[in-house]
Amino acid sequence: MLLKDKTAVIYGGGGAIGGAVARAFAREGAKVFLAGRTLVKLKAVAKEISTAGGTAETAQVDVLEEQAVQSHLDAVVRKTVGIDVLFNAIGMEDIQGTPLIEMAFEDFFKPIRKAAKSQFLTARAVGGHMAERGKGVMLTVTAGPPEATRDIGGFGPACQMIEGLWRGLAAELAPRGVRVICLRSAGSPDSPDFQEMVRQHVEASGVTRDQFLADLGSGALLKRLPTTAEVANIAAMMASDGASALTGTFIHVTCGSRAE
Q: Which domains, ranges and CATH numbers included, belong to the chain?
């Protein structure tokens, strides 16, 4: 198993991507600690993992509260030898489908503010712990490199902010034995957040849902978008010792929609 005897903390573990990553990590032998706002969703993922023979614990954590993040981290560390893997799958609550020149500032800035604070607080807390141990892997996910894309509000800038943070963390933590990797996903059609994004764009543009989805996947070499399970499988690979030569890099989980 890729992650045998590893301990992983997954922020946003009750969501589609976070839950898929949690299941993949557990399947590969990791003990997973799921953290997020909605306890019922976290417990549902933990139950799936336990039923499949894995080990998972849950905690309701507000990742926008510094003390809550630190208290949860301390609790996990007390129960384990130490944290080996961080995966950040916290949603941004972005609003899409509206042109920037018609968007209220608060709607534009909302995902940027949430991504900045949640990613920084969790990465700083876990990264500091890993640096003291001299090892660890930190993973997050964005929508990919900057492109000229219309009607996505603050989502694109938020993704670029995350990637900038991850570059800095990679440079600073590499000498301390900590790897830092960002997955670039093209979006997964089986995710509720993706479906909500589609709804917003369809409502604003007037095109049909089928046409919008067809256009999204048409530029990919595989002519489709990745599933949440596929994103999770790549995350497990990147978290494993088999990817020990990778840090400060961006892994394209896009079905070939960005081949650079």
A: 7-187+231-251 (3.40.50.720)
